[in-house]
Amino acid sequence: MGTMKININYYPPCPNPNITIRAHRHCDESCITLLFQDDTGDLYVLGTKGDNWIHVNPIKGALEVNIGDLLQIMSNDRYKRIEHCVAVDLSRARISVPLFVNANLDSVIGPFSQIMKDGEKPVYKPVLHSDYWDYF
Ligand SMILES: O=C(O)CCC(=O)C(=O)O
Ligand SMILES: [Fe+2]
């Protein structure tokens, strides 16, 4: 079945944005992350060519769906994880609520054989999820 984890992130207004980042660039370790962000709109995702940060425009009531490490591994690179970061706002606090959808820690993570084409090589070796996971 898998597990889920929810965070509630509070970013206070920042007096010195030039030397600060709210959430450093990273990819989530989840299968997918459902992310609710407020209307401050400081979230960026890295474009697929890796050379441009794209602003994620906040849409009232919308959830952003991010692909994480596990789905990239399980899909044998059909789906790619998304790198993201949160920039600093001088004047406003920010709140975001990510829901991380994960596999169980005792499951073995690797490319699903059911989706592999004939002759397709697995990009990843199977690994026990708890050996991969460092988020807790
Ligand atoms: O605050 C955000 O919008 C993103 C938070 C995030 O990337 C995370 O908690 O993994
Ligand atoms: Fe994240």
UniProtKB/TrEMBL annotation:
Q: Name one Pfam family in it.
A: 2OG-FeII_Oxy
GO molecular function per UniProt: metal ion binding; oxidoreductase activity
UniProt entry keywords in alphabetical sequence: Iron, Metal-binding, Oxidoreductase
Name of this chain's protein: Fe2OG dioxygenase domain-containing protein
Q: What top-level branch of life does the organism fall under? A: Eukaryota
Stored SUPFAM superfamilies = Clavaminate synthase-like
- Using the record's annotation, list all stretches that form the Fe2OG dioxygenase domain: 1-103
